UniProtKB/TrEMBL annotation:
Name of the molecule in the record: Phosphoserine phosphatase
Enzyme Commission number(s) of this protein: 3.1.3.3
Lineage of the species this protein comes from: Bacteria, Pseudomonadati, Pseudomonadota, Betaproteobacteria, Nitrosomonadales
GO MF annotations, alphabetized: hydrolase activity
Family, similarity comment: Belongs to the HAD-like hydrolase superfamily. SerB family.
Record pathway: Amino-acid biosynthesis; L-serine biosynthesis; L-serine from 3-phospho-D-glycerate: step 3/3
Transport is among the record's keywords: no
NCBIfam families: HAD-SF-IB (TIGR01488), serB (TIGR00338)
UniProt xrefs under InterPro entries: HAD-like_SerB, HAD-like_sf, HAD_sf, PSP
């Protein structure tokens, strides 16, 4: 295995202390400006993990088999993963109902509410909103999370196909796909009649099971096996998708997701995924 530590706060003093806790004979190797790895034996390394958490450093024990060259598909959530906002909350802000919608969103992401039912409930509150408000959210509020361009470029460099699969909406997912140059995009479609939202979602909801199904379907279509897949997300509705991938990465995620994911990033950006899988 290798111990990967990363974060802008890392200093040589940190590395020296961690090296002492591990008791290794080799030295840390640098893989990026703020990322280092150290070959280690199997173990819990609880002291290392506690120290890193206290020092605002991301820390992960990465299996030797988990290297970029081994993978062929990365499936990613959109809201709060690839982008910094929850789109439906920002749409709701256009109607001055963001607090009540955001409360439902947060509960759903923690896994406390059925995702499909909560989505329909939130979308119903948007009835009558002019369609142009969706473009306004893209123009004024949609921003990509740090490191996302680097991670997608890394995927392209290694021939890893990329897909955004979102419980959000096509207007945003298509924008993200086109801007980042992703290979595939799957999301929900808002019904719009006469230039206004009807408060309805068309077709099957992209919920937790659908996300997992889309990953498996594309994996099989590409002729890959489970060991060649990566999934990245932040909310409870990403857990099934992450569980069917070889590598599940919790990105600045809810506690329930961090507890179940193979790897978690809480400090660095999405470029940190590349650092985990590079050696």
């Amino acid at each position: 295995m290798r111990l990967v530590v990363q974060g802008p706060a890392i200093s040589m003093a940190h590395l020296t202390h961690i090296h002492g806790l591990v008791g290794g004979y080799t030295q840390f190797a640098q893989v990026a400006e703020h990322a280092y790895y150290l070959p280690v034996a199997e173990g819990e390394y609880l002291e290392v993990k506690a120290f890193c958490a206290s020092e605002q450093i991301d820390c992960a024990l990465v299996a030797d088999a988990h290297r970029l060259q081994k993978f062929g598909l990365c499936v990613m959530d959109m809201d709060s993963t690839l982008i910094s906002i929850e789109c439906i909350d920002e749409i709701a802000d256009m109607m001055n109902i963001k607090p009540q919608v955001a409360e439902i969103t947060e509960a759903a992401m923690r896994g406390e509410l059925d995702f499909s039912a909560s989505l329909r409930k939130r979308v119903a509150l948007l009835k009558g909103l002019p369609e142009q408000a969706l473009q306004q959210v893209i123009t004024e509020r949609l921003r990509f999370n740090p490191g996302v361009e680097h991670w997608i470029a890394t995927c392209k460099q290694h021939g890893i196909k990329t897909m955004v699969v979102s419980g959000g909406f096509t207007v945003f997912a298509n924008h993200v796909q086109q801007t980042l140059g992703l290979d595939y995009a799957v999301s929900n479609t808002l019904e719009i009649i006469d230039g206004k939202l009807t408060g309805q979602v068309l077709g099957e909801i992209v919920d937790a099971q659908r996300k997992a199904d889309e990953l498996i379907s594309l994996r099989d279509q590409l002729g890959l096996n489970a060991s060649q897949t990566i999934a990245i997300g932040d909310g409870a509705n990403d857990l099934k998708m992450m569980s069917v991938a070889e590598v599940g990465v919790a990105y600045h995620a809810k506690p329930v997701v961090q507890q179940q994911a193979r790897y978690a990033l809480n400090i660095v950006g999405l470029d940190g995924v590349a650092n985990l899988l590079t050696m």
